[in-house]
Amino acid sequence: MLKTSVASISTYMGIGILNVSQMIIVKQTGITTDIAAFGLGLTWINACSYAIIMALNDGIRNFSSHISGSKDHKTLGIIYNQSIAISWFVFLVSLALILNSFQLLTFFGIAPDIAAKSYEFTLYGIPSLIGSIYFESSRQFLFSQKIFHVHMKAQLFAALLHPIWCYFFILHQDMGLKGAGIARSVTFLLSYVFVWIIMKIGGYGKQAIQPFKFKEAFSLSQWWHIVQVAVPAGGTNYLKWVSIECLTVLVGNLPNKNCLAGHAAFFSINIFFSMFAKGIQTTVNSFIGNAIGEAKEQLAKNLTTIAISATFLLCLILMLFGLATQSFFVQLLTTTSAMETQFLIAFHMYLCVDVWGNFLQQVQAGILSGMNRQNDTVKYYMWTFLLLQFVVAYFCGFYLQWGLAGVWLGRVAAGIVNSICFQILLQHVDIKQEIINVQLRIKQTKQLNELNVSNVIEGNESQQDENNTSSQQIQLQQLNNNEGSEQKTAKHAQIAKK
Question: How far apart are CA 426 and CA 28, in angstroms?
Answer without folding.
Answer: 47
